[in-house]
Amino acid sequence: MTTPPGRPDQPLPGEREAHLSVSAPKSRRRRVVLADPKGRGRVLRTIGELEEQTSVGEKLIRDLIRTQLRSAFSLGLGLLGFFALLPVVFYALPQLAEVELVGVRLPWLVLGLLPFPLCYTVGYAYRRLAETNEQDFVNSVDR
């Protein structure tokens, strides 16, 4: 038998079928279990409690909402506190308020340009925190 040039390792289609039928012994089927069936009932019960809005389901949702609100208020108050302190800093340090960059005083630059990227960054951080909280919630329900 000659093999076509460029494909020395691959047998011809007829040879492949003959090779497989001769060399492969017939194996028995085996059952493969990928998950523990004992834990599934608890997950379904918890999901049922969430859907039926039982007292346990309401507590789980209330805890998720409380966590989300805590994240939102902490980031929002931190941002608000930072921007509230900027005028105080410029008032307390007048030499800092006199600094000019590109012909514009520093307070105008900081208060005019800094809020946009900072608000975007805080929003991005909140989204990541919210996704983490929701994933923790889903993981606690799936346990």
TrEMBL record:
Region (Disordered) residue spans: 1-26
Keywords (A to Z) from UniProt: Membrane, Transmembrane, Transmembrane helix
Domain of life: Bacteria
Transmembrane segments: 72-94, 106-126
Biased composition (Pro residues): 1-11
Protein name: Uncharacterized protein
Native source species: Saccharothrix violaceirubra
Lineage: Bacteria, Bacillati, Actinomycetota, Actinomycetes, Pseudonocardiales
